């Protein structure tokens, strides 16, 4: 299982943009076993984990969902909110009780429109997270479904 952390908002965003973003954050508690979202669902919010763990999973026809990555402290849950058509590409479930900051995606997109520098910084951060998640998904799916040794050239 991939355990390297995704790029943290704390390192990715300048303090000014980070503080502005956190002004629209809402603290939430998510019980263990709660599905945050499903593949194809409307990506109308996202979270930054304070405590606990969330697993990202991918529907595999005829099989159980494949866990792609486990997210922890300071990691972004949900990136699809930034890109049209704003539909989640993976599913997510709290595997422990989670405390997180929750953000309304529409409000954050409007902030980005009003402040292009902030929009650029957020897009760069989310893009870095997305690239990391795609690498994780590829490696995890090779681990699960490819013939033994076929992913050794990574």
Please tell me about this protein's structure.
InterPro entries: cNMP-bd_dom, cNMP-bd_dom_sf, Env_Response_Regulators, RmlC-like_jellyroll. This protein has 154 residues and is an alpha+beta fold. The protein has a 4-stranded antiparallel β-sheet with strand order 1-8-3-6. A 4-stranded antiparallel β-sheet has the order 2-7-4-5. It has one domain: Jelly Rolls (Sandwich). The chain is built from 4 helices and 8 strands; from the N terminus they run ααββββββββαα. The relative contact order is 0.24. Helix 3 packs across helix 4.
In terms of topology, how is this protein built?
Elements: H1 9-12, H2 15-22, E1 26-30, E2 35-37, E3 45-51, E4 54-58, E5 66-71, E6 76-77, E7 91-94, E8 98-104, H3 105-114, H4 116-145
Antiparallel strand pairs: 1-8, 2-7, 3-6, 3-8, 4-5, 4-7
Q: Regarding CATH, which class?
A: Mainly Beta
Return the structural class: alpha+beta
Q: Report the strand count.
A: 8
Shape: globular
Helix coverage percent of residues?
25-40%
Mean pLDDT: 87
Cα radius of gyration in angstroms:
16 Å
Sketch the major β-sheet.
4 strands, antiparallel
N-to-C SSE series? HHEEEEEEEEHH
Strand order of the largest sheet: 1-8-3-6
Annotated CATH architecture: Sandwich
According to CATH, the fold-level topology is Jelly Rolls
What's the domain count? 1
């Amino acid at each position: 299982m991939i355990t390297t952390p995704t790029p943290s908002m704390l390192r990715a965003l300048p303090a000014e943009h980070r503080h502005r973003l956190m002004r629209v954050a809402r603290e939430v508690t998510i019980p263990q076993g709660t599905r945050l979202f499903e593949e194809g669902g409307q990506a109308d919010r996202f979270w930054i984990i304070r405590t606990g763990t969330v697993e990202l999973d991918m529907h595999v026809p005829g099989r159980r969902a494949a866990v792609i990555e486990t997210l922890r402290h300071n990691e972004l849950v949900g990136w699809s909110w930034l890109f049209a058509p704003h539909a989640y590409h993976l599913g997510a479930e709290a595997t422990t009780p989670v405390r997180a900051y929750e953000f309304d995606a529409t409000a954050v997109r409007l902030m980005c429109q009003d402040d292009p520098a902030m929009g650029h910084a957020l897009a760069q951060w989310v893009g870095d997270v997305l690239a990391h998640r795609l690498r994780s998904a590829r490696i995890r799916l090779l681990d699960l479904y490819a013939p033994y040794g076929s992913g050794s050239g990574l």
